Amino acid sequence: MHDLRTKGPWSDDEDRLLRKFIKEYNSDYKKIEGAMNYKRDSKQIRERWVRHLDPKIDHSPITEEEGAQIMLLAVSLKRQWTRIAEHLPGRSDRMIKNYYSQKKPPKASPKDNKMDLKFVMN
């Protein structure tokens, strides 16, 4: 069966409906999917809300203080982005993951772990 769900950019009308249904159904994305006549699936709905429309999300650049906290929590919470986001109100798990991916120290190559024998022998 052909999937009739909409793909691609969201229209202003879809955004308006999503805001309305969030007020009505909170974060029950399955109910919202039905209310939107299954034109978008629950994953699309959640992602649109969390990444673009939720007024609680702060879309400004991550501060140095937040960045330091992300780097520490990434180690202590083993890069569990959703759990880390609980410590940074207004920041989504995806924002945190993207920040970490851009700022993490590069992995040491196997060559970096070996002593340079030329240097040692001279």
Describe the structure.
With 122 residues, the chain is mainly alpha-helical. Among the domains are: 12-53; 64-103, Orthogonal Bundle (Arc Repressor Mutant, subunit A). It has 8 helices and no strands. It has helices spanning 12-25, 29-35, 42-53, 64-76, 81-85, 93-103, 110-113, 117-121. Helix 1 packs across helix 2 (29-35), helix 2 packs across helix 3 (42-53) and helix 4 crosses helix 6. The N and C termini lie far apart (72 Å).
Rough outline: elongated
List how many beta strands DSSP finds: 0
Helix content: 55-70%
Strand content: under 5%
Distance between the termini: 72 Å
Order of helices and strands: HHHHHHHH
Low-pLDDT windows of residues: none
Structural class: mainly alpha
Q: Compute the CA-based radius of gyration.
A: 21 Å
Number of helices: 8
Average pLDDT reading: 89
- Major pleated sheet: none
